Amino acid sequence: MLISTHGLPAVLETLSVLIASDGISPDSAPANAAAGRLAWSWQQYMRRREPAVPVLDADLGVLPVHIGATPQGQALLDAFHRACLVDSVSYEPPRYAAGDEDRLNRSSDQISAALDGLAADWPQVRTLYGVLLPVVVLAPSRGLAGGTASSLPGVLWASVTPAWTPTDVQEFLLHELVHTTLFLEERRHGFYRDMRLLLDEENLTPSAIRTDRRPLDKVLHSIVVATEILQARIRLGTVHHPEDSLHPDSETLRANTLTSVRAVQKLDMEKLLMPRPIEMIEKCRTHLEQIVLCP
Q1: For the segment 40-96, what is each residue's pLDDT rounded down to a tens digit?
Q2: What's the whole-number mean pLDDT along residues 121-136?
Q3: How far apart are CA 225 and CA 220, in angstroms?
Q4: Three-state SS across the chain?
Q5: Burial of 163 (0-12, 13-18, 19+ CB in 10 A)
Q6: Burial of 139 (0-12, 13-18, 19+ CB in 10 A)
Q7: pLDDT of 152-173, one tens digit each?
Q8: CA neighbours within 13 Å on the CB side: how many for 94?
């Protein structure tokens, strides 16, 4: 991103560069493209990578579309599972079952309400969400919240439950939006000099959110996501969200993220990382040290 580490205009610039590099011109968008020229072009980019992504003709203000227990939904879940394997993330793929409809309808309502809250409190990010993540596939899972995958851009899998508070849902959506912006940044700039080196035991460092030792690509994402969640809490007035939420309480999250940053900065970063992620990590450190969490 990033919303705080690089700014919203930089996100849209990266999106435009990626679309242009794929030979897609916003000028080719239909004059009546409901979502706007950039969003339409991004959707063409998405579909070139995964034909299961639906053709969308909806106003930007109502995106993302929600897809549930349909053949189209299952095709997207299968595509998501394949994409996660590419990202070295393995899990039991969700499958629709009888009786899911009521829960999926509630999940859809929760997500819509969370996005409405963002539209009121942070309209720029709500607009960005409609552009970058225009498809939400709803599917229940045992113990997983859902997620995004680098090789299936623009699609969010969500397994929201009734136990989540409105703030939980907003943080989940923001969490995955940050991952998506990082996927775009990596496609444009390149992040890692040699992915094999990231798996070496000596290069494993603590994750900012899970706190376990993980490869640097996963830890980089955790650092940026955690920093952005903390910035969002300040912006949205939810700094004191309780610790039993999807993410740790704010003081713990900042402390864990600073621990991750310091561990990464002790590595031979020039050997492992390209300049862009090194810059991001340093900006995250600066933000974390300057954040004021107490009123």
Answers
A1: 999 999 999 999 999 898 888 899 999 999 999 999 988 988 888 877 776 667 778
A2: 94
A3: 9
A4: CCCCCCCHHHHHHHHHHHHHHCCCCHHHCCCCCCCCHHHHHHHHHHHHHCCCCCCCCCCHHHCCEEECCCHHHHHHHHHHHHHHHHCCCCCCCCCCCCCCHHHHHHHHHHHHHHHHHHHHHCHHHHHHHHHHCCEEEECCCCCCCEECCCCCCCEEEECCCCCCCHHHHHHHHHHHHHHHHHHHHHHHHCCECCHHHHCCHHHCEECCCCCCEECHHHHHHHHHHHHHHHHHHHHHCCCCCCCCCCCCCHHHHHHHHHHHHHHHHCCCHHHHECHHHHHHHHHHHHHHHHCCCCC
A5: exposed
A6: buried
A7: 989 999 999 888 999 999 999 9
A8: 25
> CA-to-CA distance for 19 and 46, rounded, in angstroms?
10
Peptide bond into 64 cis (omega under 30): yes
Here the tokens at position 172 are 């989940």
Q: Compute the Cα dihedral for 13, 15, 21, 24 and give only its sign.
A: negative
The pLDDT value recorded for residue 1 is: 42
End-to-end, the C-alpha distance of the chain in Å comes to: 27
Q: How far is 66 from 115, CA to CA, in rounded Å?
A: 12
Describe the strand order of the beta sheet including 65-67 as a list of residue ranges: 65-67, 135-138, 155-158, 146-147
Higher pLDDT, 103 or 114: 114
pLDDT at residue 244, as a whole number: 63
